[in-house]
Design a protein that fits this description.
The protein has about 130 residues and is α/β, with parallel strands linked by helices. The protein is built from three helices and seven strands. The longest helix is centred in the last third of the chain and has 14 residues.
Length: about 130
């Protein structure tokens, strides 16, 4: 039951957080991050306006995807460590983040998810794969 203190992590700027706003209550929390400052600034302002103090949207400069402006700066995606403690979340959601990653970065993100999601937790991931 997400109202009972579930902690959820998502890669992305906050659309999942917006969908969870009526269900997720403190002491539960939502933490999301993206590489695009404009999107995370918008999400953070939206959470503040909705008085969702237990929701965060952070921007981290992660390099490696040539399709995003500024993607040549920052920590390489295959070396980026999610800035959360081990076993910090009950669930993780990532819609199409893995679609944008190369193999080494994908393996790194998968390992990070395995680290930040509690044992017995849930991860819901979507991606488009071309073989």
């Amino acid at each position: 039951d997400p109202r009972s203190g579930t902690e959820i992590f998502t890669g992305g700027f906050g659309k999942t957080g917006l969908a969870l706003r009526r269900y997720l209550r403190p002491p539960g929390r939502y933490a999301g991050f993206d590489i695009q400052p404009r999107l995370t600034t918008f999400a953070a302002a939206m959470f503040k306006n909705l008085r969702l103090d237990h929701f965060t949207a952070d921007c981290f400069p992660i390099a490696g995807n040539p399709y995003y402006k500024g993607a040549d700066a920052g920590t390489p995606a295959d070396q980026f460590a999610f800035p959360y403690p081990a076993a910090a979340f009950d669930a993780a959601v990532s819609f199409s983040v893995f679609t944008h990653l190369r193999s080494k970065a994908l393996a790194n993100y998968a390992a990070n998810l395995g680290r930040v999601v509690r044992p017995g937790g849930t991860a819901l991931l979507s991606f488009y794969l071309l073989d």
